């Protein structure tokens, strides 16, 4: 069943995702598109019931106000403008509308149906995957994280044995992460799983690279190369499955949106990609991905596990990656996760991790001066990963974590707690 859609056109707003989420929470699907979408492109979108022109503080570009193509006003869909004084619309608003006003536009003006839910979404995606793939085969990048796990479940439902999962250990995994992936997917779920140990290959490519964008793109590009090599060992692999989600696309930038950062599965893909992509979650926010996983029957322990970036610890070992700092990140992260579980915080805090910067500070160990690294702890709560607040951790818990890190992790003499929300910070440091 195809869901009705409300299209949000970005004319410089900073609250596009807020509007999109408000509409989705009403049970109606919504998507964000750039202001310069053409009428032809708009008509290719299915079941569009209405359009929101979303202006804002970024509406002026190079001294001129961005505008939609005049032909869109004749597309036949009702339009509402937020903070866009010159628009020719059914309704104009000066600020983000109250829920009642937005609801009136969506249901009364646009006559949209509240048919956006996970059951319908899964049915649509399964149908779309089968239509896209046919009798051919898909290679899935399986990190073991929430996104790729839900994609795996979706693809198994859609195409079954036509799916081959590949887990690449790039040497940037958390402690015992790869072992856990193998145990869950190969031994418990009986997936067709190929394991590749690419530790030396990835770390060699990353040696001396300090720019975070370059690191992400190297990791993303090398991932594709590994998959291409594995695909050549198999027969009939024409598609690459990925756990791309909506915030990845939004943050990586569009034709008009400012880029926050590129994601390895969006901005890091090589131009000569040999696969056609299968990305069934690219329309979902993070909380919707989890809801989708539950609807697909995945265990809650898997669906609500800690988020982990595609580049792994590579973006938590800040600057040029060195093996000693990488090990410090891995070991301190394991301590943090263990102590959060002991304190019951693993079920309360959305994401928590450690990072190690690429500089040292003076300290004292064994009655002698030392010059070693620091570990920074970050713990945040969020719904959709587009904004985040800081978790207030009990002092005794923080003290125990600090004591353990300083005692058990080599080359570390200082522990700090990050108090920065998103925005202005991002969830990850790089």
TrEMBL record:
Keywords: ATP-binding, Glutamine amidotransferase, GMP biosynthesis, Ligase, Nucleotide-binding, Purine biosynthesis. It comes from Schaedlerella arabinosiphila. It is an enzyme of class 6 (ligase). Residues 116-305 form the GMPS ATP-PPase domain. Pathway: Purine metabolism; GMP biosynthesis; GMP from XMP (L-Gln route): step 1/1. The keyword Thylakoid does not apply. ATP binds at residues 143-149. This is GMP synthase (glutamine-hydrolyzing). PROSITE patterns: GMPS_ATP_PPASE. The keyword Ligase applies. The lineage of its organism: Bacteria, Bacillati, Bacillota, Clostridia, Lachnospirales.
